[in-house]
Amino acid sequence: MTDTTTDPTTQPVDIARTYEVRTYGCQMNVHDSERLTGLLEDAGYAPAAEGSTPDVVVFNTCAVRENADNKLYGNLGHLAPTKKQHPGMQIAVGGCLAQKDRGEIVKRAPWVDVVFGTHNIGSLPALLDRARHNEQAQVEILESLEVFPSTLPTKRESAYAGWVSISVGCNNTCTFCIVPSLRGKEKDRRPGEILAEIEALVAEGALEVTLLGQNVNTYGVEFGDRLAFGKLLRSCGAIDGLERVRFTSPHPAAFTDDVLDAMAETPNVMPSLHMPLQSGSDRVLKGMRRSYRSRRFLDIIDSVRARIPDAAITTDIIVGFPGETEEDFQATLDVVREARFASAFTFQYSQRPGTPAADLPDQLPKAVVQERYVRLVALQDEISWAENRAQEGRRLDVLVAEGEGRKDDATHRLSGRAADNRLVHFAVPAHALATGDVPRPGDVATVEVTYGAPHHLVADAALTGGSYAVRRTRAGDAWQARQEAPSTPAGVGLGMPRVGPPVVTPVVQGCR
């Protein structure tokens, strides 16, 4: 409940209440946080200045892994004394964990004011007002989507790249995954609405969009067009000024030739593919209710590389699913060796109440899962390093980004993503640094790779007279215009990646 020692309604009406959004989980949550930010600002809230105490803290949560619960309740505990010291402060919890735990959240953390689910994020401002007026916690969870989230106000955190939802929910029944019960059945947007949103983003300066869905290549199932996703990719190719199109994530069982054709034949669809494997053991895949087998998965990889030779393919893998034997695990290692992924998001199986796998026998000891996990990571790191070393000497077009290089200030490099989504840290020649002619986020730099590290590429050729060129873009202009506008603190803080350009964020177990 809200601390009522001081009436929060006495705050002067001309002083906007401030907010901060903290986000955990997948790309869908990152995009939802952009909507939450837009909703709050549309309702008159202002982003809290860095280092200040917000009037409203919103947690946009993930429920896929066990530590998500621990992280949320730990953070709520840390906020309790802060709230006590700041009468009128409100705390809201939304997202997948809120959809799962519901009223249990205010029982465990009675200082929480609002709990809302995945189907009613648009209700947040009204719930905050109601909680303040009634001086009582408000818990509102809907069982199905009433309004597609993309119709809500959205504050885009990047001037040059944006997320675009094409569907929400999932019709699969993977035994390890809690997402369908929290996000609901698949709901698809109409193609015209999606394309209109993309065109609006491009008109504002964006060069890149990432199409989002729990299973993007089943897009169209709701309106009866099984070829809809391939058609959508081709339609994106016809949008003037849109230079890069990405999507995440497809399901191997629904990956069809028409989608591959669209990827190969549409110039602005980037040569990258994130496709979850989960396990290389057919027996484990069956237990997971993944409706493909390892040979089918590898055949898709072969087809993609035949049509798009430079494609970088990434994946998700779960280690330690109930009943997984050493033979099953070796089958996963075998697929990893054959597939040669550019990178992989690897997870130790997490037993989640409410999923069928949680009740399976033969749950593996933590020590066994950890040992296998270490072996898998070592193998994938070895492969990733070899694949990145093969990039040495190549010239790449890099979309310069904000926040990609944590060490850029120390190394005097800039960072961004190549067409295949590899992270590239590149040097700027001395004459450009001296004149201030440095590429901006949203500009495109053509650089030469000098070293392939396990998890990124380094392009320092410009320091010795090698390849280096910069194309200033509309997106860079849009970024610069934001910097020159009156200063407004960022309103969204993330527990994992920051809100901004769509980067490769860890795809949590069960979201695909």
How do you describe this structure in short?
This protein has helices spanning 27-42, 66-85, 96-101, 104-108, 124-134, 179-183, 191-203, 228-236, 257-265, 282-288, 294-307, 326-339, 366-389, 408-411, 430-435, 474-484, and strands at residues 18-23, 46-47, 56-61, 90-95, 114-116, 138-140, 161-165, 167-168, 187-188, 208-212, 244-248, 272-274, 312-319, 343-348, 395-400, 413-417, 423-427, 444-448, 451-452, 457-459, 468-471, 492-494. With 512 residues, the protein is an alpha/beta fold. Helix 8 runs parallel beside helix 9 (257-265) and helix 12 runs parallel beside helix 13.
Describe the structure.
It comes from Angustibacter luteus. It is found in: Cytoplasm. Residues 156-387 form the Radical SAM core domain. Its cofactor is [4Fe-4S] cluster. The protein has 16 helices and 22 strands. The protein has 512 residues and is α/β, with parallel strands linked by helices. Helix 8 packs parallel to helix 9 (257-265) and helix 12 packs parallel to helix 13. The strands form five sheets. Strands 1, 2, 3, 4, 5, 6 and 22 form a seven-stranded parallel β-sheet that branches. A seven-stranded mixed β-sheet has the order 19-20-17-16-15-18-21. Helix 1 links the parallel strand 1 and strand 2. The protein has three domains: 8-146 and 489-494, Rossmann fold, CATH 3.40.50.280; 155-389, tm_1862 like domain (pyruvate-formate lyase- activating enzyme, Alpha-Beta Horseshoe); 395-472, OB fold (Dihydrolipoamide Acetyltransferase, E2P). It starts with 17 loop residues before the first strand and ends in an 18-residue tail after the last strand.
